[in-house]
From TrEMBL, chain A:
One of its GO terms (cellular component) is plasma membrane. It comes from Breznakibacter xylanolyticus. PROSITE patterns: ABC_TM1. This is Phosphate transport system permease protein PstA. InterPro entries: MetI-like (IPR000515), MetI-like_sf (IPR035906), Phosphate_PstA (IPR005672). One of its GO terms (biological process) is phosphate ion transmembrane transport. GO terms for molecular function: phosphate transmembrane transporter activity.
UniProtKB/TrEMBL annotation, chain B:
GO terms for cellular component: membrane. It comes from the Bacteria. Keywords: ATP-binding, Nucleotide-binding, Phosphate transport, Transport. One of its GO terms (molecular function) is ATP binding. Residues 44-285 form the ABC transporter domain. This is Phosphate ABC transporter ATP-binding protein (PhoT family). InterPro entries: AAA+_ATPase, ABC_transporter-like_ATP-bd, ABC_transporter-like_CS, P-loop_NTPase, PstB-like. It comes from Breznakibacter xylanolyticus.
Length: 306, 290
């Protein structure tokens, strides 16, 4: 084929290559390259198209139903009079309480693992189990919450029982997010702090946590937006489907948006399905806004680290 | 001679006695002691020092004194142990899990590896400037006062005074005095490094350790730092690790050459660069290897 490979010293190349023509191998490589590119695009769009179809479908059904009365009315047996006030108020309560419970616990555990924990079998076991917890189905958390928070600790069917259960559910995610964020803090920052005589805790408080806060918040918000959509564990602990009042304290009974949606979709009347679609739009908006905040924080945080 | 050296290098044991005739490091160190300065002028001292990372013997029986109010340069090829040696003096190696050592590291006449030594207190006396400028992502002012604030000093007038003094000492005051509230990250690399020096000075240490402080800077910014070091040695003891031979010969008073964990030669800088006693040293300082 090529004489140059036969001799030790390759002959000077006199061949003129046409740069606009690909060789046989290059053509094949190019083809594979393009194939994977379009496969990737297709994979991305399948998910998006399904989501878009769903959103459009829901919007057509429900958007006309959303008005001020819908947001501020109590549920009713008459579909056209029913509203989602207790549901979104309950979701807001759950969200706030879950955040208050899970954030300090998750961050403290993450800090422990990254900054204090030594290599030991015990800590390794803990780490593996936290990773496992993240994979436990949420209904199992519901049963756990019913037993421990509902019965053992006597919170009953209250907001507090629900918030503790959901806090437990998202704790592994917050711990992992905290650890990743702390890992991303440059070691030069720690060295500088230690070098000036700071203790470990001072270094964590003044350097590590501020630098990691963006990542921690991002992880927390994303996990909370998962918690706000959870239904199964709350059904198990006994959240009510029909709540004709707005909860006024953490020990009150409650419902949440997904429960309300679930309740409405299980009814035969078409008018209730319209209500469900409208409630879904509200729930989606809440999660989209939360995710948007998380993305904004993450971008700002990445900029700050550079 | 060759075989003996070979044996020592292979086994690299700390069991070799100090007065063993073949031990080059101790020879070099004692040569320095006799030739230049009495021990009483030493600010820092290491005796029978051996450092290991796990099984790896990083520093081998180092006996060396560091003169106060002078600049001591540690030179040698990468991996020779000079940075490890520097970081012994403020116990920065403590954060490396596999680090262990034997022997003594004396600050004055106190062994800083004694059990009763508080590392936070030690680091107030022995400050450090790092290879890459690493200001905190805060304002210039907050960077300088960090070391004081963590000691619980919060009085504004005291902090203001400390900021001005430290920034003047580090030759940065005139450039930043009007924007002390500006982010430290908006400064140039050279300014950032001088800010890191100011931050160290604000704590009023006795010793300043510098780990390749100009390796990330351009020649003009480097020259400024070098001038600053010469200025600072009037009040402080400075130990600097550098890969830049010109820098070592320009600024340092004494120079120590490390190779594979051994202190090969240690003398005043002028003799080191004009009449090195060891061939290895000569080859290194003239750029023939390393």
């Amino acid at each position: 084929m090529n004489n140059a490979t036969d001799t030790l010293i390759p002959a000077p190349r006199t061949r003129v290559t046409d740069l606009t023509q690909r060789s046989h191998t290059a053509r094949r490589n190019h083809l594979i390259d393009q194939t994977f590119k379009y496969l990737g695009v297709a994979a991305t769009f399948i998910g998006l198209i399904v989501l878009a179809y769903f959103i459009i479908d829901i919007a057509i059904d429900g958007i006309g139903r959303i008005d001020w009365d819908f947001l501020t009315s109590l549920p009713s047996r008459k579909a056209e009079k029913a509203g989602i006030l207790p549901a979104w108020a309950g979701s807001a309560w759950i969200l706030a309480l879950t955040a208050i419970i899970s954030l300090p616990l998750g961050v403290a555990a993450g800090v422990y693992f990254e900054e204090y924990a030594k290599e030991s079998r015990m800590n390794h076991l803990l780490e593996v189990n936290i990773a496992n917890l993240a994979g436990v189905p949420s209904i199992i958390y519901g049963i756990l919450g019913l037993e421990v928070f509902g019965r053992l600790m006597g919170f009953g069917e209250s907001l507090l029982a629900g918030a503790f259960t959901l806090a437990l559910l998202i704790l592994p995610i917050i711990i992992v997010a905290t650890r990743e964020a702390i890992k991303a803090v440059p070691s030069t920052l720690r060295e500088a702090s230690y070098g000036l005589g700071a203790t470990k805790w001072q270094t964590i408080k003044w350097q590590v946590l501020p630098a990691a806060s963006g990542g921690i918040l991002t992880g927390t918000i994303l996990s909370l937006s998962r918690a706000v959509g959870e239904t199964a564990p709350l059904i198990v602990i006994g959240a009510l489907a029909y709540v004709p009042f707005v909860p006024s304290g953490p020990m009150d009974q409650f419902t949440v948006l997904p429960m309300q949606i679930f309740n409405w979709t299980s009814r035969p009347q078409a008018a209730f399905l319209t209500n469900a679609a409208a409630a879904i739009i509200v729930l989606l908006l809440i999660t989209f806004i939360m995710n948007g905040i998380a993305i904004y924080l993450r971008n700002r945080w990445q900029k700050n680290l550079k | 001679m060759m075989t003996t050296e070979f044996l020592i290098d292979t086994h690299g044991t700390p069991r070799v006695k100090l007065d063993a005739p073949v031990y080059r490091a101790s020879e070099a160190a004692s040569a320095y002691d006799a030739r230049v300065k009495p021990q009483s002028t030493f600010k820092l001292h290491t005796t029978d020092l051996n450092v290991y990372y796990g099984d790896h013997h990083v520093l081998k029986n180092i006996n060396m004194g560091i003169e106060s109010n002078a600049i001591t340069a540690l030179i040698g090829p990468s991996g020779c142990g000079k940075s490890t040696y520097l970081r012994l003096f403020n116990r920065m190696n403590d954060y490396i899990d596999t680090f262990h050592m034997s022997g003594q590291v004396l600050l004055g006449d106190k062994n800083i590896y004694d059990k009763d030594v508080a590392t936070e207190e030690l680091r107030k006396l022995v400050g450090m400037v790092f290879q890459k400028p690493n200001p905190f992502p805060k304002s210039i002012y907050d960077n300088v006062v960090y070391g004081l604030k963590i000691q619980g000093i919060n009085k504004k007038s005291t902090l203001d005074e400390a900021v001005e003094r430290a920034l003047r000492q580090s030759a940065l005051w005139d450039e930043v005095k009007h924007d002390l509230k500006k982010s430290a990250l908006s400064l140039s690399g050279g300014q950032q490094q001088r800010l890191c020096i100011a931050r160290t000075l604000a704590v009023q240490p006795d010793v300043i350790l510098m780990d390749e402080p100009t390796s990330a800077l351009d020649p003009i910014a480097s020259a400024k730092i070098e001038d600053l070091m010469v200025e600072l040695k009037k009040e402080y003891t400075i130990v600097i690790v550098t890969h830049n031979m010109q820098q070592a010969s320009r600024v340092s008073d004494n120079c120590a050459f490390f190779y594979m964990g051994d202190l090969v030669e240690y003398s005043d800088t002028k003799s080191m660069f004009t009449h090195p006693q060891k061939t290895q040293t000569q080859n290194y300082v003239t750029g023939r290897f390393g």
